[in-house]
Amino acid sequence: MTGVDPTAEAYRRLLELLAAGASSEQLAHVAARGLSAEQSAAIGSATELALRIRETLSEHRRREAELTALFDTASDLARLRDPDAVLRSIVRRARTLLGVDVSYLSLNDEANGETYIRVTDGSVSALFQQIVLGMGEGLGGLVAQTARPYATADYFEDERFRHTNPIDAGVREEGLKAILGVPLAIGGKVLGVLYASDRSSRAFSTAEVALLSSLAAHAAIALDTAHLLEETRSAAAELNAANATMRRADDAHDRLMDLVLGGADLPAVAAEVAGVLRGSIAVHDEEGGLLAGTSVAFDAAAVASSHANGRAVSTKDVWVCAVRAGRELLGSLTLSGRPELAGDDRRLFERAAVVTALLLLLRRSVAQAEDQVRGELLTDLLTAPTRNPGSLIARARRLGVDLSSPHTVLVAHASGISRRGLAAACARYGDLVGVHAEQVVALAPDHPAAARIAAELKSVVDCPVTVGAAGPASGPEALAQAYNEAVRCVNTLLALGREGDGAAMADLGFLGVLLGRHSDLSGYVHATLGPVLDYDARRGTDLVGTLRAYYAAGGNLARAKETLHVHVNTVAQRMERLAVLLGEDWREPERSLEIQLALRVHQLGG
Predict the structure, then answer these.
(1) Where are the alpha helices (DSSP H) in 474-508?
(2) Residue 306: how many CA atoms within 13 Å on its side-chain side?
(3) What is the pLDDT of residues 161-203, one digit of tens each?
(4) 210's torsion region: left (phi>0), alpha (psi -120 to 50) or beta?
(5) Neighbouring residues of 603: CB distance < 8 A, sequence distance ≥ 6
(6) What is the distance between the alpha carbons of residues 99 and 62, in angstroms, rounded to a whole number?
(7) Is 338 helix (H, G, I), strand (E, B) or coil?
(8) pTM of structure
(9) Which of 30, 405, 434, 503 has the greatest number of CB atoms lying within 10 Å of its CB?
(10) Around Cβ 585, how many Cβ atoms within 10 Å?
């Protein structure tokens, strides 16, 4: 009977362990007896590959867990009923995802200038749970005061924070050493701090800071939404405490709240308000775009007046009420068909604006979570397209994007608007749009003209926008290569002084061919200017600068010497040296064109 091949048995064992999710130690100890040195080396290489596969799978599981937690948190916000339960869930998820001993959340008390612990997970010290920090005291007080994340691997050895006896006593009793704190902020207002902490020394990575910041953003939305919900409930209580004439408004308000808390969308809420007020309702965003309801003219002046005084205002034909959260304008409601709106109906119309604000805030939180998922997909696609292309295609398909179909890659640059604002303006052009490596990137399913897009974006954002295009390309690796070419195209346009223009490499003529994907730029520059560059490097001279000045002066030595601040005889001597290095024909038209092009490429390359 033929025995089992020990090499095959070792390979089979590796696959079994990998499929069973074995640890790195188990994989590393797979061995087979009776093998030659060559076979043992092959088994060792297979083991190293299995370890790398396990690390990749672990990383994907970690990223999947993080995204799942963010989606679950967004879902909690969408059906928000108990804000404390949402905060406890966020703190618990922070502890689990970062693998820390204790996580907790503190809230600011602006009246007293303090921040106090509201929710904890993993804490065993009652003294720690009752800590109150003054603004600027301890790590948490510094985060609450500056609205910036702070982390320390050893709290008691870190002199960046103002230590106080009550804070240090609570931290010491809890046994904490490493602490990371990130702000809970809405706009520019800090509501509190979310923490992750360990009882042993630990350095928190940038990815962990970003993850905790994402959870903190959801917690801030939960707090802000809870505040808005409390305002709405208070308004309902005021209506209930009024006289019997307001009962209809109370019932209608409750129905609106039930719709929102039940997951209804804007059209359903608009239809309910229209039915109660016996008119037509239109819901607009802050810029006047129609979100739901009947199409009516948007009155920006009336919205501004309502936003300023916090009440519904009437115009000749309609009633308008600003939809806002605090002082932030989220949109507006417009009621037509009711020239007169008195008493409880007017109050109901104003309360409907509060309910609409709550719904818009919930939509914003879900949209922020989705934007983060799209941004991570774009980053993975453009930085590691070959790591797991099948996974990238599947993730994109879940977002409604087919990476296997041809896409044109667009890269946009503008100095007069934030990258996030520019990305929002580019959303109309791409299936997948986001910010990557400080660039706004869009994957367009068709083949749009870059120059036309640049012109359209300028009219939208009111500043010059430079657009580089490449493709079309299909598949992760080809799209990543097209992105690199589009970036080079944008940089070339800017270097050529064509800010606000759009082009693909093919539109740049011979310069585009030279700067294209398969070009050897450094080889071209060295082949043309190599002797001059080498001479400058050896002697510490600047003959390259003399060449630039000579061509900039149109070949006129007198003008060139003014630029170089030297005597004309010195320029002439340098010209003789250049003739020795480049050949006597260097001023001939054909050679001169090549030299000027090489000079420009050398300048573009820094």
Answers:
(1) 476-495
(2) 29
(3) 889 999 999 999 999 999 999 998 887 788 889 999 999 999 9
(4) alpha
(5) 495, 548
(6) 11
(7) coil
(8) 0.35
(9) 434
(10) 11
